[in-house]
Specification:
alpha+beta, 2 domains, 10 helices, Thrombin, subunit H, Leucine-rich repeat, LRR (right-handed beta-alpha superhelix), 440 residues, 9-stranded mixed beta sheet
Length: 440
C-alpha cells in the first residue's frame, strides 16, 4: 500500500510539473510569454451582494490622476477580458482597506507588494483578512468572493523597498471561470511600442458612494522606462486603490501583463517592470505551491509520454481528472497497468482528438481488451499499440467488434496469444480504415 501511494504521489508531481509548464514557460526560455486563457466555463449567472466598508489606504504609496481625467468606467465587469481584474480587500492595523489585483493563472493573482507588506512599519498583511473579488461591480460579485491560501512578497521589496510586487495563491481556481492574462517579459523598446492599459478600482470615483467598488481603466503609451530602477513610466490616470493593477496589453487574441502599477506623482505614474528576474521569482513561487489541489489543467498538452514512471490504477484514475481535451498522443507502454488500469482508461469520454495510444507491455489480457473494445469516444484514433501483452483470441474477437475507431489504420497485436481465428476476426472488421500496418 505504501509503495502504491508513493508511485501515485510521484505521478501526481510529474503531472503538476506538466501543468506548470502548460501555463508558465521555463525562466530559461528564449521568449517569456506565459499563457493567456479565455474562460473555459461560462460566467456564473447568479451574483452575490456584499456590504464592505473599506478605505483605500495605501500608506505612502499613493498614485494620483493628472489634470485631465482620461479614465472610463467598465460597466460589464464580468465579461472577458475585464473579468480578470478584481478588488483585493485586506486589513492594515485593523483598518479594512483595498487595492487591485489581476489574475495571471487559474488561482494566481498578481498585485503590488505594498498591498501585502508595509515597508515603513515592517508589517505583513494578515493572510486571513485577504479576499479577492474578481469582476466586482458596485456591490455585486459576479464570481463571488475568493479566499487567499497564501501570498508571497518580493524579497527585494521586503529588504530595501525595491521591486514592488507580490502574488496571491487562491483557495479556488477562479481563473478557470473568469479567464486569466499571461505574463510577458519584454525589452523596453517593445513595451514603448505598445498601447498599454491600467484597469483597477480607484477610490476617487467612489468617494461619495460608501461601500461601492467601481472598475475604471485607461489606455495610453509608455513615456519612459527606467532600466536601473526597473520601472515603467506613463501618463495614464490612476488613483489610490488602483495599486496592484496590471500594466497590460493585447496582442492578437492574447492579453499579457508586463508590469504592476504601484505609485504616481502629479506628473507621471509608475509600475514595476516585469523582468526575467521577477518572472523567475514568480515561477519559483508557483512551482513551490505546485498547483496542489487547485488546478487540474493540461488543456494545451497534445502529447504525454511517461518514461521512467511507475504507474498503477490509482495513477490512471488521477490522469482521468485532468483536462486533456487536446491530447493526441498518449504513450503508456512498459508500465504494467494491467486490466484494472485499462478498464479505467477505456471509460474516458473526452479525448475525442486522441490519435495514437501506446499500451504495449502492460500485462493486459482478455478482460482488458474487452474493456477497450467498448470505448466509443476515441473517434480519431488512428494508431493502437497493444503489442506484447497477454491478449488471447477471445480478446482479439472483442476488439474486432469495435465500430467506433473508424480512422484506425495501424494496429499492433504481436507478442500476444492470438491464434488464426482471432487474426481472422480482426481482418474482417469493416468499420476501420483498411490498416496500412497490421501486426498480429
Amino acid at each position: 500500500m505504501g509503495a502504491s501511494q508513493s508511485n501515485t504521489e510521484k505521478f501526481k508531481q510529474y503531472l503538476e510539473d506538466r501543468v506548470l509548464e502548460s501555463v508558465y514557460p521555463s525562466p530559461e526560455a528564449q521568449v517569456i510569454k506565459a499563457a493567456s486563457r479565455k474562460p473555459t466555463k461560462p460566467a456564473l449567472q447568479s451574483v452575490q451582494n456584499l456590504e464592505l466598508d473599506a478605505q483605500a489606504i495605501q500608506g505612502k504609496k499613493e498614485s494620483v490622476t493628472s489634470a485631465f481625467d482620461g479614465r472610463t468606467q467598465v460597466l460589464d465587469t464580468a465579461k472577458w477580458p475585464h473579468s480578470v481584474h478584481g478588488v483585493l480587500i485586506y486589513k492594515v492595523e485593523n483598518i479594512t482597506t483595498w487595492g487591485t489585483g489581476i489574475l495571471i493563472g487559474p488561482h494566481v493573482v498578481l498585485t503590488a507588494g505594498h498591498n501585502l507588506y508595509n515597508y515603513e512599519t515592517k508589517g505583513f498583511t494578515d493572510v486571513k483578512s485577504l479576499q479577492f473579488l474578481p469582476g466586482m461591480n458596485g456591490q455585486v460579485l459576479p464570481f463571488g468572493l475568493v479566499e487567499v491560501k497564501k501570498y508571497f512578497v518580493s524579497p527585494s521589496y521586503i529588504k530595501d523597498g525595491k521591486e514592488d510586487y507580490g502574488i496571491l495563491i487562491l483557495k479556488k481556481s477562479i481563473g478557470e471561470i473568469t479567464g486569466y492574462f499571461g505574463l510577458a517579459c519584454l525589452e523596453p523598446e517593445e513595451i514603448q511600442a505598445k498601447r498599454i492599459n491600467i484597469t483597477g478600482y480607484p477610490s476617487d470615483k467612489v468617494a461619495s458612494k460608501p461601500k461601492m467598488y467601481e472598475m475604471w481603466g485607461m489606455e495610453g503609451t509608455v513615456s519612459h522606462i527606467d532600466r536601473k530602477k526597473g520601472e515603467i513610466k506613463y501618463i495614464i490616470d490612476t488613483a489610490t486603490g488602483q495599486s496592484g493593477s496590471g500594466v497590460w496589453y493585447q496582442e492578437g487574441g492574447g492579453y499579457y501583463v508586463c508590469g504592476v502599477h504601484v505609485t504616481g506623482t502629479n506628473f507621471v505614474n509608475s509600475a514595476t517592470l516585469l523582468t526575467r528576474k521577477i518572472y523567475q521569482q514568480i515561477y519559483g513561487w508557483v512551482h513551490q505551491e505546485g498547483f496542489k489541489e487547485c488546478f487540474l489543467e493540461l488543456r494545451s498538452t497534445k502529447e504525454l509520454i511517461f518514461y521512467g514512471q511507475e504507474i498503477n490504477t490509482e495513477c490512471i484514475s488521477l490522469l482521468m481528472q485532468y483536462n486533456l481535451n487536446n491530447i493526441r498522443v498518449l504513450n503508456l507502454s512498459w508500465h504494467s497497468i494491467g486490466d484494472e488500469g485499462v478498464k479505467v482508461l477505456a471509460q474516458n469520454t473526452s479525448w475525442s482528438n486522441l490519435s495514437e495510444l501506446n499500451l504495449a507491455r502492460n500485462e493486459i489480457d482478455t478482460e482488458g481488451a474487452m474493456a477497450l473494445a467498448q470505448n466509443t469516444s476515441w473517434t480519431n484514433l488512428s494508431e493502437l499499440n497493444l503489442a506484447r501483452n497477454e491478449i488471447d483470441t477471445e480478446g482479439a474477437m472483442a476488439l474486432a467488434q469495435n465500430t467506433s475507431w473508424s480512422k484506425l489504420s495501424k494496429l499492433y497485436l504481436y507478442g500476444n496469444n492470438i491464434d488464426a481465428a482471432g487474426a481472422k476476426a480482426i481482418a474482417q472488421n469493416t468499420s476501420w480504415i483498411k490498416p496500412s500496418k497490421l501486426y498480429i
